[in-house]
Structures are given as C-alpha cells and as structure tokens.
Design brief:
Helix content: over 70%
Number of strands: 2
Number of helices: 26
CATH topology of the largest domain: Growth Hormone, Chain: A
Distance between the termini: 92 Å
CATH class of the largest domain: Mainly Alpha
Number of domains: 2
CATH superfamily of the largest domain: MFS general substrate transporter like domains
Strand content: under 5%
Largest sheet: 2 strands, antiparallel
Structural class: mainly alpha
Order of helices and strands: HHHHHHHHHHHHHHHHHHHHHHHHEEHH
CATH architecture of the largest domain: Up-down Bundle
Radius of gyration: 29 Å
Length: 606
C-alpha cells in the first residue's frame, strides 16, 4: 500500500529525488524559516526583557540603555534599501544563512561582557531586604564604607565600563545587519516557489511566529533572571541575596547564549537549499480567474523591469519614487500615524519591565512573565481581530480610515484610567538619616519624594497595568495600516513604498523611540549612583513622576496618530465626494453643459 502511494506521487526518478530530498521542498523551507525567525526574535526581544538588569549590573542610565536597545536599527537601516534591488539576483538561502550567522555572533557578543568583567559586587550598606538602614541620605563619612563609589573604584573600572558598552553596541550593529536579509528574502523565496493556493498559508505561519517570538523572549527572560548573575563564578551558598532583594542581578547573559545557539543551529540548513527549486504543485484544483492572471502577469512584468535596472540606475530611481510617494497625502499621513504608534510600542516594550518593577515592586523575573503571558498575547488578539474585521466586512479605504479613527479614540479613552494604576507611596519616616539629608548639599525637598520599600502589589493590579499600557486596540489598528497603504499608492510603486515605509519607521520611530522614553525616565531620578566620579544608574525614582511621564508619552503618540487618521479620513471623504460629482456630471448632459458654461464664463467677462 505504501509502495503504490509512492509510485503515484513519485512516478519517475526525478520525482523520487524530489520527494527524498527535503531541501527541494518548500514546506521544509517554511519550517526552517519559521524556526530561524523565532530564534532571531528571541535574541532581539531578550535584550528588552533584561534591559533593567543590565542597567543595574553595569551602571547605565535609561537613556544609554534605550540607545543600546535601538542601536540594531542603525545596521538595519543602512542596508534595508538595497534589499529591494538585489531581490532574486543573489542566492537568497545562502544570504539568509550568512545573516543568521551574524545574528548568532551578535548574541554571543552580547553575553561577552559577563566573561570579561569581574564578579558583581553589590552595595553592602543595606543590611538586608527587611532592614530600614540605608546610606540613601547619609552625609559623607557615615555610610561610605559600604558604598560602591568608594570601595571598588579602581583605574580598570572605568575602562571595563567602556569596553562593555563598545562590545554591546558592536553586537547590536551586527544584529541589525544580520537581520536584513532574513525576512525579505525568505518571504520572496516562499512566494516564488510555493503554490498560489498554499503561499498565503505559509506567509501567515511566518507572520504568526513574528508575533509569538517576543512573547517567548520575555518568558525566556523570566526564567533566566531567576538565577544569580555569577552562577558560574560563585558557589550557591555564598550568595546572600534573594531574587526579591532590590540589589539582586539575574543571569542576564545566559539567555543570550541560549538564543544565539538556537540561531546558529537554525542557520545550517540554508546553505543546502538551492538557488531555485521546483514550483510546488498541489493536488487540488486551483481556482483563478482570467482577471487575477492578468494582474499577476502585469506585476511580474513590472518587477522584471525593476530587476533589469543596474545598481546605479536603481540608486537614481529610488529618490524619484521616494518623492512621488511622499507627495501622496494619504500615504504620507498613514506612514506618520504608523511612526507615532511604532515609536510608542518601541518605547513601551523596552521599559515596560522597568515600569512594572518600580511601580509595583515586582521582581524582574515576574515582570517579564507578565509581559510575555499577558501583554504579547493581547497584541496578538488585536491583530487577529483587526484582520477578521477587514475580511468579514470587505472594508473600503474610507471605512478602514474610519476604523482607525475609532480605534485610536478608544485608546485615548483607555489611557486615562491607566495613569492611576499605581500603588500608594509611603514616605520614609523621619530619622537621623533624613535630618542629615537636610544638612547635606542635596535639596531638602528631595526627602519628601523618596519612597520607602513597600510590599509588592497584588498580581491583579500589575496585570491590569500591563494590559492597559499596550491595549489590544493599537494592535488592531496596526493590522489595518498595510491595507490602507497598499490601496493609496500606485501598483508599480508598492514594493518601493514598503521599503520606504520600513526605512522611515526605523529612522523616525524604532531608533528614537526607546531613547526618548529613556531620557524621560532619567528626568524622574532622585538619587544617582556615582562610580569613579561619574554618574551611573539611578537608585531611586520619583514614582509619581515616572508614571506620569512614561504614560504621558504614550498619550502624546496616540494623539499624534489620532490626528493623522482624522486627516486621512477627511481627505478620503473629500476625494470620494469629488469623484461622485465628476461621475454625475459625466452621466447627466445638462449638468455637464452647465459645468462647461461656468468654466467659460470668467473668460467671456474678461
């Protein structure tokens, strides 16, 4: 029975070789590419899950850590423009494999600072988690014996910090460069050799993995940060801290080793895939009308014309297409709305863990678990709902813009309750320490803003804060945007317009977004830790101001996106009205004659 099935599916030798060789199967390519995309997203999202831990370990400000988190976009932006040029001119699977190797190398480099620096030495001035004794406000001489600023300041310390930052920034650049060919080349390869019936299914699988990947990355961070940072250098009985201690630093480097190893394993199959493989043939009848075939033929001829351009002609042609698309008001406004939403999401995702840790006294591990299990699935629900609404109602361009306006209005309404979702603050009791602060150079008003350690907030409140900071609605709006853009530009410019869109998003949103959020968070710091006469990480924040500015930036970007969508709706409504008026005048001869007379009347008067 098995032999007959084999004969029917593989009648000759060539078909048998095709069946036996997995590297000639587009299904196996989809499996490998899904695994690679998931592994790549593990590397990039894991950094965001451990960013507050890296800040604490190496004394970084939030602005610096935000720049580090977004620095991979630098390498990505420099090369993303040329991807639409190279297309099928190169061996796409091998380029994907080389990019994956760079991503793996970037992951290993991100963990390198742990091995080139000494063991973590925490502040000994705090006796324990439950002790009220701290050097927070003690004048010089009272608590300096245990202060890190005086005890471990050595000439090599500053050099180590510079080396750590240099290695991490180089790793981020490599991560951006390596990620350039993975998704565009993979999607185009699947689209070329998959059947028209199965191609949407394969691309849908890859898209779902890009949504799931960040959630898996945060869950990986939740697991790794439960281990002590120097688990490989210090015996377990020598660690006197628990993961609930504010001085605790988890094994942030361990997750990078896991994710980078997965990327390295996923890169191997790509060097065995051919440059071109046989087109997939399905057993079922593929229904396609003559109109769809004509459209596909036109699109293929246009893409072939673009591929026939030389590199110099392509570079000259690109600014022309850029200006032509940016002059289109609907396309420009939709891209600006997406810039606002993407900058908001980039900043929220980078510092969401830190926000939950500071506002609700959660551990870094538990904060990451909340983000990975509640926030990311919420975004997935929003994307599915937005796509389902589009498919169910077959919405026009004007209706899509109206949906975006209503979605952003709902976001603005939901943004107000989230500003009050924080635990009440308890002021430090009056003590000799506080009185000493009033005699020190630090302003006395700072004492009233310092908050004492408080009991962790109940998980339900933290879950509410996490889910409302990045609600389902923006994800639903983001799922509508590609349709809005694709309907508002010329068909021959679609591939270029997508490249322009991602370039603008990287330059205007994904790169500056985390830096802007980090700078705003730094302005809420009350007490900075000093290492070797330089400002290091913040030790205490004004939590009220932290919450107001963190959520205030979210409200600011949502207002910007809302105004852009309102203008898009107004423009489309005016265009629709003008089109209907033109249609009426062409169908009605009397109105057409009247319109011609009104045009001629000013000339006759002259």
């Amino acid at each position: 029975m098995t032999s007959t099935a084999t004969k029917s599916s593989c009648p000759d030798r060539s078909q048998k070789a095709l069946c036996r060789n997995p590297f000639l199967s587009i299904k196996f390519f989809v499996f490998c590419h899904g695994l690679l995309q998931l592994s790549q997203l593990l590397v990039s999202s894991y950094l965001k899950s451990s960013i507050s831990t890296i800040e604490k370990r190496y004394g970084l400000s939030s602005k610096t850590s935000g720049l580090l988190a977004s620095f991979n976009e630098v390498g990505n932006t420099l090369l993303i423009v040329f991807i639409s040029y190279f297309g099928s001119r190169v061996h796409r699977p091998r380029f994907i494999g080389c990019g994956a190797i760079l991503v793996s190398l970037a992951g290993f480099l991100m963990s390198l600072p742990h091995f080139i620096t000494g063991p973590y030495e925490y502040d000994q001035s705090v006796a324990s988690v439950f002790s009220n004794t701290t050097d927070l406000c003690q004048p010089e001489g009272m608590g300096s014996s245990g202060n890190l600023s005086d005890s471990i300041c050595a000439p090599h310390t500053a050099r180590e910090n510079h080396e750590v930052l240099l290695v991490m920034f180089i790793a981020q650049v490599l991560l951006g460069i390596g990620g350039v060919p993975i998704q565009p080349f993979g999607i185009s390869y699947i689209d070329d050799f998959a059947s028209e019936r199965n191609s949407p299914l394969y691309l849908g699988i890859l898209f779902s993995l890009t949504v799931v990947g960040p959630g898996v990355g945060f869950m990986l961070g939740s697991g790794m940060l439960r281990f002590y940072v120097d688990i490989d250098k210090v015996a377990g009985d020598e660690v006197l801290l628990t993961n609930k201690d504010p001085r605790w630093v988890g094994a942030w480097w361990l997750g990078f080793l896991v994710a980078a190893s997965l990327v390295a394993v996923s890169a191997v199959p790509y060097f065995f895939f051919p440059r071109e493989m046989p087109k997939e043939v399905t057993s079922g009848k593929e229904i396609s009308s003559k109109k769809s075939k004509d459209v596909l033929r036109q699109l293929k001829s246009r893409s072939e014309n673009v591929q026939n351009l030389s590199l110099l002609q392509f570079i000259k042609y690109f600014p022309v297409v850029l200006l032509r698309n940016l002059r289109h008001p609907v396309y420009l406004l939709v891209v600006l709305a997406q810039v606002n939403l993407s900058a908001m999401v980039a900043g929220l995702a980078t510092f969401m863990g830190k926000f939950l840790e500071r506002q609700f006294s959660l551990t870094a591990s538990f904060a990451n678990m909340i983000i990975g299990s509640v926030n990311i699935p919420g975004a997935m629900v929003g994307i599915v709902v937005g796509g389902a609404i589009l498919k169910r109602f077959q919405m026009s361009l004007k209706q899509c813009s109206a949906m975006c306006v209503l979605g952003m209005l709902l976001c603005l309404i939901l943004a107000f309750p989230s500003s009050s979702l924080a635990a009440p603050h308890r002021r430090l009791p009056a003590s000799p320490t506080e009185r000493a602060l009033s005699l020190d150079t630090t302003p006395q008003s700072a004492a009233s803003n310092v908050t004492a350690p408080r009991k962790p907030t109940t998980p339900s409140v933290a879950l509410m804060a996490s889910s409302t900071s990045l609600p389902v609605t923006p994800a639903a709006v983001l799922s509508v945007l590609p349709t809005t853009q694709s309907w508002s530009i010329q068909p021959e410019d679609k591939s270029f317009a997508v490249g322009i869109q991602f370039m603008l998003l990287r330059v205007l949103a994904w790169m500056p977004g985390p830096v802007l959020y980090g700078s705003a968070i730094d302005t809420t710091c009350i007490l900075w830790e000093n290492k070797c006469d330089r400002k290091a990480s913040c030790r205490y924040y004004d939590n009220n101001l932290f919450r107001q500015r963190y959520l205030g930036l979210q409200f600011f970007f949502e207002v910007g996106a809302f105004l852009c969508f309102v203008m898009v709706y107004v423009i489309l409504r005016r265009q629709e009205k003008d089109a209907s008026n033109v249609a009426e005048t062409t169908t009605d001869p009397e109105k057409k004659k009247l319109a011609e007379n009104t045009r001629k009347s000013p000339e006759s008067n002259v």
